[in-house]
Amino acid sequence: MFEDLSSKIESAVQTLKGQSRITDVNIAETVREIRRALLDADVNLDVAREFTNNIKEKVMGSGVLTSVNPGQQFTKIVYDEMVQILGETRSDIAVANTPPTVILIAGLQGSGKTTFSGKLARYLKTENNRNPILAAADVYRPAAINQLKTLADDIGVPVYSIEQKDPVRVAREAVSMAKSLALDTVIIDTAGRMHVDEQMMNEVAEIKKAVNPHEILFVVDAMTGQDAVNTAKAFNETIDFDGVVLTKMDGDTRGGAALSIRSVVEKPIKFMSTGEKLDALSPFYPDRLAQRILGMGDVVSLVEKA
Amino acid sequence: EKSRDGLLNKIGKSIAGKNTVDAETLDDLEDALISSDVGVKTTIEIIDRIEARVARDKFITQNELQQILREEIADLLKENRPEQPAEFDADFQHKPHVVMVVGVNGVGKTTTIGKLAHLYKNAGKLVVLGAADTFRAAAVDQLTIWGERAGVPIVQQGQNADPAAVAFDTVAAAKSRGADVALVDTAGRLHNKKSLMEELGKIKRVMGKVTDGAPHEILLVLDASTGQNAMQQAKAFTEVVDVTGLVLTKLDGTAKGGIVIGISNELSVPVKYIGVGEKIEDLQIFDRVAFVNALFGSDE
Lengths: 306, 300
Ligand SMILES: Nc1nc2c(ncn2[C@@H]2O[C@H](COP(=O)(O)OP(=O)(O)OP(=O)(O)O)[C@@H](O)[C@H]2O)c(=O)[nH]1
Ligand SMILES: Nc1nc2c(ncn2[C@@H]2O[C@H](COP(=O)(O)OP(=O)(O)OP(=O)(O)O)[C@@H](O)[C@H]2O)c(=O)[nH]1
Ligand SMILES: [Mg+2]
Ligand SMILES: [Mg+2]
Known about the structure:
- Chain A is of the alpha/beta class.
- Helices cover 50% and strands 13% of the residues of chain A.
- In chain A, helix 3 (45-60) crosses helix 4.
- Chain A is elongated and about 75 Å long.
- Chain A starts with a helix and ends with a helix.
- Chain B has an eight-stranded mixed sheet with strand order 3-2-4-1-5-6-7-8, sandwiched between helices.
- In chain B, strand 2, helix 7 (139-150) and strand 3 (154-155) form a beta-alpha-beta unit.
- In chain B, helix 2 packs antiparallel against helix 3 (23-35), helix 3 (23-35) packs antiparallel against helix 4 and helix 10 runs parallel beside helix 11.
- Classes of the chains: A alpha/beta, B alpha/beta.
- Bound molecules: guanosine-5'-triphosphate (2 copies) and magnesium ion (2 copies).
């Protein structure tokens, strides 16, 4: 469906050959192509606008047109800018000086929080030799606790849950439980909530207040569209999260929401979820995502040449 | 958001006494549509249609332009098929009327089934649920709870059972019990996973062996917060199981779900229901006019 953006840039720049410099007028078509590719990839409209303006500025004074491969140079500028915005590769999670480390997981409904909670527990256990406990603080969704227990059983990690519909208490007691069992990590799975649901947003703020998490992760579906900035902003204002988890990256979405979120709330993307199975988790690779957003399959070799 | 509120008014004003819409207004319209996830392609199509109408109808009034805009967008949203009415008390040609619910992970399939069961039951229909998501952790438990909430029975074979066998059983049970409606849940699957999509085709086919033409309806559930990828989803699911209707969930947030306009138009499939919350009563029959108004930030 998408044409390779780099070839679009290439041909747009070809028409500029012979011009000695880039002007607002002769660059307009290329900038429009880039903007459209970003919008097709679900980058937020305002973010796309800002991005293309930055590109324009960078390209104007760069002598791209007179270089040997103007198209490739141009593409490289676009790609580099995007990788830079997306941030560095990282999957670090805060570690408490005095255990247990408390990690709070939050996000919209169905984004993949519970699955990620299980994945993170597995990851910390197998990769970092940690001993986590999962806290079932989603007391609303039908069978949410059973879902978490099923995942936890698979990886041999305990779950703390109670009968009462009191998520703050679940979180607090899970931390006490971890202390008494000498477990070093508590991962709190919370209910999905809409950023406009005041009561539910207050609730997650209460959970945060009660347990003072060392790490708060915001879980986002990679298929999210224009609204990603609204939800990320609202969650960030309420819980000031430390990092973002992008889920369902095993699909064929371009994943432009990640660029929007990075631009609007300057928090690192820490993990990518790439499947329903518990081992389908990886650190976040900004270069791969940039290529994906731009639809540039072969950009790596291209950029190396440039 | 404020800037969008007055958009329809602004658009109206901008053409008073002219036979074209000025570029600035069209830019504003474009921004509003893109911000609602309508997508570049469909947005261009809508703008072209508006320009063509304005050029043809000439010197229309403000109110007329607003009306035209609404009409042109609503026009892209397809009507329900007569044999698949959205009303819950409608008569069906088949007994049981079998509805299969499909979609990618986490969009709201199981919840929608719970809500549909409730509405059908309130309308006096005898309903049976089928737990053919045997894969997702505790999916059967989740549907069981929805069955209890709605007060309708569920057919299940536990986790990890063969989903096609559960679907077969559900339709057979619905038939032998004289149920009016069977609602079959399926596991969420990403549309680019070939084997999972083939499995869905098999689940569908097996139901036709129990009763003629089943499933009579295949609802594709789309999350309103999903962006342009929803088009890929709709195409892939339609190809494999011939989707007959869309359900747009999670419209209780700030996402507008504009992508359904292009999907409905390109694939000729109606939007039947919208989800507006997590409670059992939070499902509504889709209303084109209300949807188009919401796109421009006004809720009336
Ligand atoms: N394909 C794929 N599916 C995923 C991924 N992460 C989660 N899922 C699926 O997405 C659906 C929702 O995941 P959950 O973990 O239940 O999401 P949640 O955020 O806890 O949902 P709520 O608690 O209802 O808000 C399930 O079907 C998961 O199996 C992923 O990375 N890839
Ligand atoms: N706010 C809101 N939440 C909804 C709506 N519909 C479903 N949900 C929530 O979205 C989450 C996922 O819903 P499910 O019904 O489990 O989704 P699913 O498509 O069956 O998920 P999988 O079976 O894992 O693929 C749950 O937390 C639901 O409560 C809606 O219209 N509005
Ligand atoms: Mg959950
Ligand atoms: Mg389900």
